[in-house]
Specification:
31% helix, rod-shaped, 209 residues, alpha+beta, four-stranded mixed beta sheet, 5 helices, 60s Ribosomal Protein L30, Chain: A, two-stranded antiparallel sheet, 6 strands
Amino acid sequence: MRRVLFVAAALVVVAGCSARPVGGPDGWKVYGPSGPQGVAGPAGLAGAAGPQGIAGAPGQMGPQGQAGAVGAVGPKGADFVWTAFSDVLFDFNRAEIRESEASKIADLASVLKSHPGYKVELEAYTDPRGTDKYNLALSRRRVDAVRSALVAAGVPADAIEVGAYGQMTPKCAAKTEECWQLGRRVEVKVIPAAGAEASASPQQLGQAK
């Protein structure tokens, strides 16, 4: 009898090492030891890319900006002045045209008649001797003499403009006869007539002269 109980006890001890009985309302249940941890399965295949999204509609164009203000008109360019013609010189206190100066007036008249698109400006001066009032009147007589000679040579009167300035704008400041002679003059400037198209270039005018 003792041998049987010993064997039973031994079986219980052995069973306790490998299984654990659990009691419950349904009786005793015996659970075996936990199994080893499972190995992870291989990774699944990557999913296919979805279809490309549709581009959105373009945005509306912004309003056009206002035009900037118009810039101011630039100043008018200076008129061409052809000054290759020599001054008409005068004797002291005289307004008559010298015989040596007559050829200058004849050449000028020829150019103006051949090129009606041009006009001439005559500016008369004196040397510094004498009063301002007297020299101004003398310069007027001198420019009138040149103007009359041009009209007599066939130049239209409306193609001639005149000015008299007395002893203003001297050619030099020395008190010598040579310097004073340069002051007794009528300067000649040929320019395009207002509203007319010039019919010759400066080079052609120079050749005509």
